Amino acid sequence: MNTRLLSTAVLAGAAALAGLPAAPAAAQVSFLVVDYDAPGMGDWWKLLVETHQARTGVAVEPRSVPARQYYERLLLETASGTAPDILTVNPNNLGEMLAAGAILPLDAMIDAHGLRDRIVPGGWDSLSVDGVTYAMPVTGRTLQLIYNSCHFEEAGIAGPPTTPGEFFDLAQRLTVTEPGGRVLRYGANMVNANEDPTYEMLLMWAIANGGSFSDGRGAFTIDSPPVIAGLEYMKRLHDSGAVAQGVFESDLRAMFATGGAAMTIDGQWQFPFIQQNNPDNYDCFKAARHPWEGSATGGVNMALAVNAKAADPEAAFQFLVTAASPEMQARFSDYSPFIPYGVGALTEAQLAAKPYLAPYVASIGTAHPIFIPGHEDDFNEIWPIIVDAILLTLRDGMPAAESLAEAQRLVVECCGD
Amino acid sequence: MLLPALVVLGLVIGLPMLRAVEMSFDTVNLRRPHLAGKLGLHNYDRLLSDPRAWSAVALSALYMAGTVAGSVALALAAALLTRRIVRGRALARLVFLLPWTFPAVVTALVWGVMYEGNFGVINRLLDHVPFIEGANWLVDRRTALGALILAQIWNEFPVAYVFILAGLHAIPEELYEAARIDRAGPFQQFRFITLPQLRYILAVVVILLMIMGFKSFPIIFILTGGGPAGATETLTVLTFTTAFRRLDFSYAATLGILAVAISVLLVLGYLRLVARLDAGRDGP
Amino acid sequence: MSDPYGPLRLHLLPFLRLASLCLLGSVALFPIYWMVVIALTPTGFSRTLTGILPQGVTLENFRALFTERPMLRWLGNSVLVAALSSALALLFGTSCGYVLSRLRFRGARLLMVAVLITQMMPATSIIVPLYILFRDLGLLDSIEGMVVGHVSLVVPLAIWMSKGFFDRIPADLDGAARIDGCTRLGAWWYVALPLALPGLAAIFIYGFVTSWHDFLFAHALVHSPQLWTAANAIASFRGEYFTLHEMQMAAALVFALPVVVMFVLMQRWIVSGALTGGVR
Questions:
Q1: Are C23 and C102 in the same domain?
Q2: Of A281, A388, A392, C255, which one has the fewest beta carbons inside 10 Å?
Q3: What does the pLDDT look like over A51-81, one tens digit per residue?
Q4: DSSP label at residue A30
Q5: One domain for residues C128 and C225
Q6: Looking at the partner chain, which of A76, A248, A278 has a beta carbon nearest the beta carbon of C220?
């Protein structure tokens, strides 16, 4: 075994790969894909791989990774230089991949293949840093209100809430408790566990109060009045007993889908899950616009990028061209519960078949990204700090202004300019 | 004959460990790739003044102490109780081995469901028990670490059980017969025969559980992820977040070396203990 | 007999014993009972159970396991990897332990500690070098890679335990064999190993369970679902958006069966085996 320093080893699995003689025309490209075998989205990926092979004769080797392990695998493969030619990335980790020098700028190829206009306006924005585009959006999502209309009828409530105040009041009215005091059904879901969705909850309520985590120039505003007001709102909801405490997001979803909560603010993936697992009550579930003025949170969810060390970047990019083709985009919604980014991808018929998509489609164009603009490569450092602040206020009763001031200090310290 | 084992160990664990040592003197941070090759002791400097790392060490030690003490106590009680059973012995023993058949991932998930504050079955059962209040076990910082320790004990006490049960069976029955003739009660028998005879095996069990407890990761990571607000952030959790969230693989390696250093101290302490016991074996 | 503890031993003590046995037993079994309850509940509904009995019992989760997932393949992989790696760890570990038991040489103690040190590093700290190493050796995403990895997890304990077993076997015995013309290897194989057989069973079982539970190598170094073993397969029910608790618990119970069968078969050996090794 050689004794070269690990750093050299890490950075150059790189050298090893780059040193390979570049094949003139790749007969095969590899593709890091999330949950390739899952029904729904996985079926579209499979169709894409087949279509691409038929179209170009280039075989695609899908390397499936379970969603829960995706990010660690991406890092591990990047760090050891074994990452495949085509990567699935997310705006939240794009900056990190970019800082690691792991992905290629795509603008020249995007223009050469005329892809720029095949993606809906704004679609490229969250995947561009300093005007350079590094990935092509494929799936999108926002968080919208989903409610159980049967619970609403039962409580004599006419329609879904449209303001934070109404959301709060209805959450109280819809909560059902047993004689012993234990909750039988929560009025609403609000993630407040030690995981990143909790960060997005605060971002939502900060937006609802007219703020965000940074100002227009990218300076942090974690301790600004709108964010404090957002956290105070979360605290009131938390203490009112109308939301479950400390339950992980995935468990909250199961609870909501099976009637354990009356409202949630969540993605459209709830619907296929309910359809499959609670079919008797499926008709109860309805989607509506998020209950505040201003944008929803979300945007691009999965995007495709080209590995900076790809042996044949052009061949890898061809796969993106296939993915953006009208043919593939037209079939997207037949499989996937996400919002497609191709122009005209959602047909009237597809929308009619999935009426719940309407508020999601309406909000995706203006959605506020989850990462903090200007701090793209620090998302995974920032969210734990903010989640700690949220939990300190919710659990230990620390005043929101105080915990957020501390978060602001830590965030500036780790990731300020 | 030494070779196959040492080659496999050296290659699969030893070599990556050496590279981790190299890495700890370097700057391998995916977010700052340009810093690679900046060699020095900076990671160790940082470690010395990193309160988070030392609080993680303290939590790891607490976690380890809790799981070792709990597992040994539970295993000892179970082993003493199933030692002389005549009917249904195999079944009784299987009961105490069963928790070992489930990986840590499963342990974490089922205890997570049971601990949940409102629907969780533990609180539902406690509703019927007077004087004991339920809690939101994993959410409350006062109970979170204890709740994790309990789940871990449930999962790993069978390891101790197997060894202790075996140790009990190695105690010559004549010793107890002699004690009965001397009219020693059950507690005296335990104090003067069972415990001294078990000392060696208990020491073995303790060191095994120490290493398991100090390195423990999945149960903590899945159930609390180190939260609430750092209340259960042990050294392994901190190592994980340093590598896979802050992408600082060099500092993660440094934390790993700290874990090894502390574990080595524990094992050397253990070896001295065993040596002392061995030396004292022929004494009164 | 004038045993002052007679009445106590005859009546109260057995009762107390039985009561504590039942109490401890139910503490050990309750989480498993709860797994069964969850596994029998329709997908999604286990988070809102309010009693201690399953509501709306279904076997659908078990059916789906075997029809929608390659359970048999995963079970087969797990058995193959666990059996191979524990057998190899046994072979490597006991030969090493034998030498350490029979030959006194400088640094033997250091070697024993060094062997233990390999188990102390948190996996996260070595995962990147490990990944690079496995890539260079062509062991990524392969059964062989997992076996090699699991051997390295079990060998240290096998060395420590088997040294204990061999220490108990009088050196005269294999010394005699060597006078009869056996090599050291022969003495180990024909004399020492058979005498330590019960102890070997204990090591095998420890290795089997360790491999069965391993998440590090299975999770980080194996990607293809057709190569997954128990821990990977069970973890896979925890998805990005939903955790399929009910199917996951069903899978956990199914994956526990081979281990239980092994416990039942080897129970006698676990006990008598650890006995000879532990107490010198």
A1: no
A2: A281
A3: 999 999 999 999 988 888 888 888 888 888 8
A4: E
A5: yes
A6: A76
List CB contacts of A178: < 8 A, sequence separation 6 or more: A184, C50
Give me the CATH topology for the region A28-140+299-364: D-Maltodextrin-Binding Protein; domain 2 (3.40.190)
Q: Chain B neighbours among A 229-258 (CB < 8 Å)?
A: 244-248, 251
Spell out the residues 6+ positions from residue A341 whose beta carbon is closer than 8 angstroms to its own: A119, A120, A123, A136, A137, A138, A139, A140, A300
Q: Is residue C115 part of a domain?
A: yes
Q: Are residues C89 and C168 in the same domain?
A: yes
Beta bridge partners of A303: A89, A137
pLDDT, averaged per 10 consecutive residues of chain B (284 residues), comes to 84 90 88 79 90 93 94 93 80 90 91 91 87 86 93 93 80 83 84 81 82 90 86 93 88 93 85 71 42
Indicate whether C77 and C137 sit together in one domain: yes
Residue C52 lies in a domain: no
| B227–A387 CB contact, under 8 Å | yes
- Of A67, A76, A178, Cβ closest to residue C239: A67
Classify residue C81: in a domain, yes or no.
Answer: yes
Is the whole-model pTM more than 0.90? Answer: no
Give the pLDDT of residue C163. Answer: 83
Pick the CATH number of A144-298+374-415 from 3.40.50.360, 3.40.190.10, 3.40.720.10, 3.40.50.10490: 3.40.190.10
Give the distance, in angstroms, between the CA of residue A358 and the centroid of all CA atoms in the same chain. Answer: 18
Residue with tokens 């939240």: A92
Tell me, what's the ipTM? 0.88
pLDDT in tens, C16-73: 888 899 999 999 999 999 999 999 999 888 888 888 888 888 899 999 889 888 999 9
Tens of pLDDT, residues A295-331: 999 999 999 999 999 999 999 999 999 999 999 999 9
List alpha helices for B129-248, DSSP H.
144-169, 173-181, 186-189, 195-215, 218-223, 235-244
Q: How far is CA B51 from CA A7, B46, B247, B259, C16, in A?
A: 27, 10, 19, 15, 48
Instruction: Give the confidence band of C269 by pLDDT, cuts at 50, 70, 90.
Output: low
Range of the domain at C205: 60-278
Residues C233 and C103 in one domain: yes
Q: What is the pLDDT of residue C5?
A: 56
A178 touches chain B (CB under 8 A): no
Give the rounded distance of the alpha carbon of C188 from its chain centre.
25
Domain with CATH 3.40.190.10 in chain A: 28-140+299-364, 144-298+374-415
Catalogue all structural domains in chain B, each as residue range(s) with its CATH number: 55-282 (1.10.3720.10)
Neighbouring residues of A210: CB distance < 8 A, sequence distance ≥ 6: A226, A294
Three-state DSSP state, C243: strand
